[in-house]
Amino acid sequence: MRTERVSGYGQPDRREPKVVVGAAIIADGRVLACARSAPPEVAGRWEFPGGKVEPGESETAALVRECVEELAVRVEIGDRVGRDVRMAHGRSVLKVYTARLLHGDQPKALEHSELRWLTASELDSVAWLPADAPIVAALRPLLAAG
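Below the sequence we write its predicted C-alpha cells.
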C-alpha cells in the first residue's frame, strides 16, 4: 500500500503509510474496549489500545510496548483481526491483532477515560472510532465462537 504525493519539483514522492497497531485483548469471551480521553474531537469514542510503530520496531513489538504504556499490562500477540484499515486520508494504516493478558495482569486506564470488557452481543453498545468499526465486525464471530 503506497500513497503518492508530488514533490516541489513535480516528481512523485512515494511514501509508505505509517502503521498504527491495535490490540484486541480477549479474555473469557470478551474483548477490551478503551474510551479515548483526548484529543477533544474523539474524546469518549471507543478504540482498541495501541499506537504507532516506531522506526526499526516490529508491529508486534510496538503492540507489546503500547499495551505496557497505555494499560500497564503484558500481552502475548496472536493473529491479525480483519483487514488493513486506511486512516488519516491514507497517511496511516491500522492493523489489529488479537492479544491475551499474561501473568494475571489487569488493565488500568492510564491513558483512557474508561475501560470495558464487551461480549459479542455488547460490541454495539459503545461508539467506536470509524477506523475500529471494521475490526469490530471481524471480531464478532471470533468472540461468539469463543
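The radius of gyration is 16 Å.
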